């Protein structure tokens, strides 16, 4: 983290949340963000599509940002069940996650598809959170750096800048497992990501771009992870469903 990068704490609710519990969760976070006049981080929640409208309405005129968990690469058309980036923007969203490993695995999304989705997000005026990360087998083979570098190069949208794109490193084997890489391993991947980005979009934009870590982030490991030089925030799954845990993670960012 450096002074030129404001931390982003993003909650990916995945396929969780009904109105009865999700609305109080969003409400607590919006209130906390508004009361924290010195908030030194940006906070984002990405609810399931069914809650986007309600959470966006609640977050209106608060400092809590709302995003989608995925978008289609096209703006409209015959794609039953899909949502376009333009629709997310129309609803009030500021961000969208693209290329989450669960989408890559469950929906066979390639880097090429993820790139197209990220480009659709930028075209709609959304900030794209582009996810990358190795599987356990890839880490065991010692090819993490190569895999993540290839994903970054293949998934980054044309026209990516620090203002319109965030990159998130989420090792697949760390998601929902309670296991995390060591701090040195996280920093090694993030430093490589920034170097790869510098070659692609220039050192200035790469230095300003926020790189999130995701995968079993919780209050007990957040201080260490958020304190790493090239980690600029977190993409949180399970712990984002508790407003106290999520807020504690946000407050773990160095000021
Ligand atoms: P967990 O925090 O539950 O490990 O999930 C991480 C994640 O996939 C966020 O996108």
CATH fold descriptor of the domain at 8-17 and 41-65 and 128-251: TIM Barrel
**Heterogens:** 1,3-dihydroxyacetonephosphate
**Ends apart, CA distance between termini:** 9 Å
The CATH architecture of the domain at 8-17 and 41-65 and 128-251 can be given as Alpha-Beta Barrel
Shape: globular
* Total number of strands: 8
Could you give me the name of the CATH homologous superfamily of the domain at 8-17 and 41-65 and 128-251? Answer: Aldolase class I
Q: What profile does the largest beta sheet have?
A: 8 strands, parallel, barrel
Strand order of the largest sheet: 1-2-3-4-5-6-7-8
Q: What gyration radius follows from the Cα positions, in whole Å?
A: 17 Å
Brief descriptors of the model:
255 residues, TIM Barrel, 8-stranded parallel β-barrel, 11 helices
Quick recap of the structure?
This protein is α/β, with parallel strands linked by helices and 255 residues long. It has helices at residues 19-35, 49-59, 85-91, 101-106, 111-123, 136-140, 144-155, 183-201, 203-208, 219-226, 243-251; strands at 8-12, 42-46, 64-68, 95-98, 127-132, 165-169, 211-214, 233-236.
Can you describe this structure?
The protein is α/β, with parallel strands linked by helices and 255 residues long. The chain contains 11 helices and 8 strands. It has helices spanning 19-35, 49-59, 85-91, 101-106, 111-123, 136-140, 144-155, 183-201, 203-208, 219-226, 243-251, and strands spanning 8-12, 42-46, 64-68, 95-98, 127-132, 165-169, 211-214, 233-236. The structure holds 1,3-dihydroxyacetonephosphate. 1,3-dihydroxyacetonephosphate binds at residues 12, 100, 170, 175-176, 214-217, 235-239.
């Amino acid at each position: 983290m450096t002074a030129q990068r404001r931390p982003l704490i993003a909650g990916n609710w995945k396929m969780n949340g009904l109105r009865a519990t999700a609305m109080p969760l969003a409400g607590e976070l919006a209130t906390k963000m508004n009361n924290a006049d010195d908030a030194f981080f940006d906070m984002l929640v990405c609810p399931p599509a069914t809650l986007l409208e309600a959470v966006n309405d609640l977050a209106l005129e608060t400092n809590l940002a709302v995003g989608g968990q995925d978008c289609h690469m096209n703006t409209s058309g015959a794609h039953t069940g899909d949502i376009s980036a333009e629709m997310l923007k129309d609803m009030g969203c500021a961000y969208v996650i693209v290329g989450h490993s669960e989408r890559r695995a469950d929906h066979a999304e390639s880097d090429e598809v993820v790139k197209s989705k990220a480009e659709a997000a930028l075209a709609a005026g959304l900030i794209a959170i582009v996810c990358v990360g190795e599987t356990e087998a890839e880490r065991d083979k010692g090819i993490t750096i190569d895999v993540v570098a290839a994903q970054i190069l293949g998934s980054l949208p044309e026209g990516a800048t620090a203002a319109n794109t965030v990159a998130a490193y989420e090792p697949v084997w760390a998601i929902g497992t309670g296991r995390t890489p060591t701090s040195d391993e996280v920093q090694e991947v993030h430093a490589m990501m920034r170097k790869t980005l510098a070659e692609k979009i220039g050192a200035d934009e790469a230095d300003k771009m926020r790189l999130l870590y995701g995968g079993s982030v919780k209050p007990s490991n957040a201080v260490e992870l958020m304190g790493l030089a090239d980690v600029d925030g977190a993409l949180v799954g399970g712990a984002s469903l508790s407003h106290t845990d999520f807020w504690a993670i946000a407050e773990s960012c160095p000021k």
